[in-house]
Design brief:
Blueprint (H helix, E strand, L loop, with lengths): L1 H31 L6 H7 L1 H18 L4 H15 L1 E3 L4 E2 L4 E2 L5 E3 L4 E2 L4 E2 L4 E3 L11 E2 L4 E2 L4 E3 L3 E2 L4 E2 L4 E2 L7 E4 L4 E5 L17
Parallel strand pairs: 1-4, 2-5, 3-6, 4-7, 5-8, 6-9, 7-10, 8-11, 9-12, 10-13, 12-14
Antiparallel strand pairs: 14-15
Helix pairs in contact: 3-4
Length: 206
């Protein structure tokens, strides 16, 4: 009986944590999306938020392994159909992640995304290898990735950096940088205090 009570309390605590995380997501999204006028609108009409919320469920299933892997993939595919955002359930996504517009985003299995990251539509965090190794990008905290950008392979984008719209990143990007072009080159490396607005579309900096 005690175990049952403890389990229920654990479930309640988990639900509370999930609700708190959703509130954080909505608050972060409100700061980054001037087109949305209310938290209710953001909750109901943001495919980017819906995609990350479903991903968290799928990711927990994926981590259990075994027979949970296939259901996790099916859940992620359902989210893809509903939102236009494809996130492999194995991807590791940090807190307050926001996808603006959402459509066409692809995030691969071994991708790692830090906290307070914002990406726009059409972004790909993809691989360049068929081997079962770390083959997708690692994105640091407070990074902004512009529309249509492709980050390919196990590259690292350092914290507080921006990647320009339609850039193709195949090499590491240092922290506090702006990377633009095909292939992407680092345009500037500056202290965070003098960088452009980190939540503005990096296409503005090209």
């Amino acid at each position: 009986m005690r175990g049952g009570v403890g389990s229920v309390r654990g479930d309640i605590a988990s639900v509370r944590e999930d609700i708190a995380a959703m509130r954080e997501d909505i608050d972060a999204a409100m700061l980054r999306d001037p087109a949305t006028t209310s938290r209710l609108e953001m909750f109901l009409a943001s495919p980017g938020l819906h995609a990350i919320w479903v991903h968290r469920v799928a990711h927990r299933m994926w981590q259990r392994g075994g027979r949970w892997r296939l259901p996790a993939r099916l859940v992620s595919q359902a989210a893809r159909t509903a939102t236009g955002v494809e996130i492999h359930p194995g991807a590791q996504i940090g807190k307050r992640f926001f996808i603006d517009h959402g459509m066409g985003v692809v995030i691969g299995e071994t991708a790692e995304v830090g906290d307070d990251v914002m990406i726009y539509h059409g972004v790909t965090l993809g691989g360049r290898s068929m081997d079962r190794v770390k083959r997708h990008p690692t994105v640091g905290n407070n990074v902004t990735i512009g529309a249509g950008a492709r980050l390919l392979g196990p590259v690292t984008v350092g914290e507080e950096s921006q990647v320009g719209a339609n850039a193709v990143v195949v090499r590491d990007v240092p922290s506090y940088s702006v990377a633009v072009g095909v292939p992407a080159r680092v345009r500037s490396t500056q202290p965070a205090a003098v960088q452009p607005d980190p939540w503005a579309d990096p296409a503005l900096f090209i």
